[in-house]
Amino acid sequence: MAANAARLLLAGTGSGCGKTTVVSALLRALQRRSVPLAAFKCGPDYIDPMFHTAALGVPSRNLDLFFVSEAQARADLAAHIPAGGLGIIEGAMGFYDGVSGGTDTASAAHLARATATPAVLIVRPQGQSLSLAAEIHGFRTFADNTLAGVILNGVSRAMLPFYREIAEKAGLRVYGCLPPVPEAALPHRHLGLVTADEIGGLQDRLDRLADAAEQGLDLDGLAALARTAPPLRDKTPLLAPVCRKPVRIALARDRAFCFYYADNLDVLRALGAELAPFSPLEDAALPADIDGLYLGGGYPELHADALARNASMRESVRDAVRNGLPTVAECGGFQYLHQTLDGRPMAGALPLHARMTDRLQPFGYVTLTAARDNLLGRTGASIRAHTFHYGVSDDEGDAFHAQKPNGRGWPCGCATDTLYAGYPHLYFRSNPAFAANFVRKCAGLR
């Protein structure tokens, strides 16, 4: 049966045009109207979905056409958009920006096209008048026909008529403006926005943004546009438990470790895992009676002093990993397993030292291929992943070969039959066998 999943994609002219601010404002404003909602993020970003989740109180999910097929992306939308509600998708970077500079593959435009989702372009007019029409016209006619409207960000209601007249010369309807709300600004740092949990008074900021959205955006028009999307007929393949009874996997989750794909956690649960959250910052030791450990990414470098002070937790993690507890540690979690991070003592499960640099290290989408048998897969097994970090290690490992879509490759990942630790963030749904092998090992079946 087809799912009548009303949906809308909010794209941007580029990074920094205010997509997350506009999407968060729209989500909270529609929620006030008691519209059932689901939020999604195009691409591999962790931080933007945190703001969607804060606005709605339910997880936001990534839709990434490098990680999954077009059919899988349609199935994910169909599975998670509530009946009678709306799905709101935030684009990545600029509308046409894909896995490399010469293609729109895995871009917001590709996602809109593959899922037949009407798209609205967020534009922030700065030092423009008639040139705004030329910019919008270029986006509308460049290579796609899914753009159905425009939202003007950072434009006061008083200036809306002026900019509306100019923008509509490009042939797209203007669905209003989000006026400036300085007191509700979302701050940035080196990996993007500051995480949602770090912003004081975030709920009040979201309410102020929603107030602005109610005043400036055509909420009825945007909802009506979302309902023009055709039904979705694809279904997500079901995953079955791979162990007879649930295994408990300790999940590091606090201000230092907060980068997790909601789908990764769903996959682990579907395969038979019970997730036991804990805080490397606050708790004295790992949870009791656990069968595995998942250390996600985040900002351990910003909390290195607090992590270092929690010696009992560091010792608990070190002993568990050294004693063979099945462990997945990605990016920040990988750094936490080092002896030191910028000179501060970390868990010490790996005989390595990590430090932060002032430049982004090799980053972007990669395919990881196992160079030898390990916890997650046999030699030659592969999975899609993403890297985005400023940290470096004495030794980033050679258990996998990482290859970017442009062909560039390098060795990475420290892995044994009980450990995966490396800078790449894995996306389990791109190859659920990797997650299944982890769960089986936790259950003692591998």
Describe this structure in words.
This protein is of the alpha/beta class and 446 residues long. Helices cover 29% and strands 24% of the residues. The protein contains 13 helices and 26 strands. The strands form six sheets. A seven-stranded parallel beta sheet has the order 3-2-4-1-5-6-7, with helices on both faces. Strand 24 and strand 25 form a beta hairpin. The longest helix is centred in the middle third of the chain and has 15 residues.
Q: Mind summarizing the main beta sheet?
A: 7 strands, parallel
Distance between the termini: 38 Å
Helicity range of the residues?
Answer: 25-40%
Rg result: 22 Å
The largest sheet has its strands arranged as 3-2-4-1-5-6-7
Q: Number of DSSP helices? A: 13
Q: Which geometry do the CA atoms define?
A: globular
Low-pLDDT segments, ≥5 res = none
Beta content: 15-25%
**What structural class do you assign from the helix and strand content?**
alpha/beta
Give keywords:
6-stranded mixed beta sheet; 24% strand
Care to give the gist of this entry?
With 446 residues, this protein is an alpha/beta fold. 29% of the residues lie in helices and 24% in strands.
Give a topology summary.
Elements: E1 6-12, H1 19-32, E2 37-42, H2 47-56, E3 61-63, H3 70-80, E4 86-90, H4 108-115, E5 119-123, H5 131-141, E6 147-153, H6 160-167, E7 173-178, E8 188-189, E9 192-193, H7 202-216, H8 219-226, E10 247-252, E11 257-259, H9 262-270, E12 273-278, E13 292-295, E14 297-298, H10 304-309, H11 311-322, E15 327-330, H12 332-336, E16 340-341, E17 344-345, E18 353-356, E19 364-370, E20 382-387, E21 391-393, E22 400-403, E23 409-412, E24 414-415, E25 419-422, E26 425-426, H13 432-442
Parallel strand pairs: 1-4, 1-5, 2-3, 2-4, 5-6, 6-7, 10-12, 10-13, 13-15, 15-25, 16-18
Antiparallel strand pairs: 8-9, 11-14, 16-17, 18-21, 19-20, 19-22, 20-26, 22-23, 24-25
Helix pairs in contact: 1-2, 1-7
